[in-house]
Specification:
5-stranded parallel beta sheet; 5 strands; 15% strand
Length: 188
């Protein structure tokens, strides 16, 4: 068995509130166990890449943004720590679930991921969490979102519903045909 210094905690980072909570939890686990922490941001090429024929190589714009995001997140989460946790970051192109499972490939690794709230109808709303739980060869720690996120999501949904209802009512009122008044100038 590897010594704690050689064991790793691999954590998925996307910049979302869920991933920040998972990163904090992974940092706590690394501090308590003496393991190394590897923060992984998996990204996919998208339409923000430079157009063909430009001086920049393909995918550089997206990769640069991903590196910048990971550095910023690690700095925000661990800037105030005492430096006892050995942290490294990895930005890699690929699907998040598959990439995390491939990196956390030792039985002594611990894979930490954030998960979304689940409902009664759908047990896991996160396909990444579902993929990692079903394919990983190491232990997987899924970190629930903070209560604050649930409150924010509930308020956002309420605002969206109220906005949609008011917009729908507004459009309905404007679509009604105008009725002419029963009194006209000639009737008086």
């Amino acid at each position: 068995m590897d010594s704690p210094a050689r064991q790793r905690i691999v954590v998925g980072v996307s910049g979302s509130l869920n991933s920040l909570v998972a990163l904090q939890r992974a940092g706590t686990e690394a501090r308590l166990t003496g393991r190394r922490l590897l923060a992984v941001l998996a990204w996919r090429p998208c339409d923000t890449d430079p157009p063909p024929g430009t001086n920049r190589p393909p995918l550089k714009g997206t990769r640069t943004a991903a590196v910048r995001l990971l550095k910023g997140v690690l700095n925000d989460v661990f800037a105030a720590t005492d430096g006892t946790v050995r942290i490294s970051g990895l930005v890699i192109s690929g699907s998040a679930g598959r990439t995390l499972v491939q990196i956390a490939n030792k039985e002594t690794d611990l894979l930490v991921i954030g998960r979304r709230h689940h409902s009664k109808l759908r047990r896991w709303r996160s396909p990444i969490a579902r993929y990692c739980l079903t394919h990983a060869t190491c232990p997987v720690l899924t970190v629930p979102p903070p209560p604050l996120q649930f409150d924010l999501e509930a308020r956002t949904r309420k605002k969206q519903l109220l906005s949609a209802a008011s917009d729908g009512l507004f459009h309905t009122l404007h679509q009604l045909p105008l009725q002419r008044s029963a009194c006209t100038d000639t009737d008086q």
